[in-house]
Amino acid sequence: MQKLTRIVTLSVALLMISGCNYFSVYKRDLPQGNLVNKGMVEQLQPGMSRQQVVNLMGSPLLEAPFDANEWDYVYRLDKAYGDVEQRRITLTFQGDRLAGIDSEGDISGDIRLPDDQGVGPSVEGTSDERESPIDNVTPDRP
Question: CATH for 29-110?
Answer without folding.
Answer: 3.30.1450.10
